[in-house]
Amino acid sequence: MNNKWDMTDLRVFCQVARRSSFVGAATELGISPAYVTKRIANLEKALGTTLFHRTTRRVLISDAGETAYAWARKVLDAAEELNQGVAGASILPKGPLRISTSLRLGRNHLAPILADIGQRYPELEVWLEVMDRRVDVLGEGFDIDVRVGEVHEPHLIAHHVAQSARVLCAAPAYLARRGHPKTLADLTGHDCLMYRERHQTFGVWRLQGPNGPESVKVTGAMGSNQSDIVHQWALAGLGIIPLSSWDVAGLLREGVLERVLPQYHQSADVWAVTAARLDQSAKLRICTQLLISQLQSGPYALDTSVV
DSSP string of 84-123? Predict the structure, then answer.
């Protein structure tokens, strides 16, 4: 292996990886497919490995290519941050921006906000990944993670978005059939919808109440790792579940769902988390601040009216 590659090789390689196509990368970059093939061959020779498996119908990135892609993105991002740092804050955001969040936050709030940001800054390459688990921001290469719950990782920087809580909810039909629990211990005799939201402990609900923090072990016949599914089950009257107040505020006002044990809640503020300080990158600073401001006020802001 040698280091006879340059930034052009990395840019071409990343475009092929993103498009899974030599022709698609050539079109995106405004160069010929033959030149793309040449640059990839040059990079494979320099690294001493095969980056893509080619067939007549598909281009698949290899295991070595996956590793190379992660490092290439870091190199290109670092170069972009160097350019932005030297040029100052006046430069417009451009280049890749990788964001992670939970499913319902991503679909109902971040997706339309990012659409507006993408139109405002067309040179940005926005990637939004939604998953109902806590991500490794640094290890998985995300620029911003918009999460619910406290930030415990010491190497991450947390930017507060909104004060929020998870509240216990159930459909009126369920409560009419099974009755309202009067105490936290009563939950053990109810159908509780089982769902692990990113970092929660499965089967144990930890809540703040009149006597401080309390825990209750709950059970139920229905469970899923997808927030949309358990949300639908709650609406269908299948059980009790703690849901983020910003996600159910409208449903509570309309009577579609009702609070259960309203004296209890789980603290669940919303944070925008970054691995780098905002003053290190104009792209990161502008996009993080826009996300926060739009989540606080605007057509897709989080409804924080439920305490």
Answer: HHHH-TTSPP-EEEEEEE-HHHIIIIIHHHHHHHHHH-TT
Same domain, 287 and 216: no
273 beta partners: 145, 158
pLDDT tens figures, 200-228: 555 889 999 999 999 999 999 998 888 89
User: Domain for residue 1, yes or no?
Assistant: no
Kindly list the distances between the CA atom of residue 150 and the CA atoms of 159, 241, 262, 270, 278, in Å, as whole numbers in the listed order: 11, 20, 22, 8, 20
> Where in the sequence is the domain holding 45, given as residue range(s)?
7-77
Supply the pLDDT for residue 94.
Answer: 85
Query: What's the structural domain count of the chain?
Result: 3
Q: Above 90 in pLDDT, residue 105? A: yes
Cα–Cα distance measured from residue 265 to residue 164, given in angstroms and rounded to the nearest whole number: 10
Q: Sign of dihedral through CA atoms 114, 117, 119, 123? A: negative
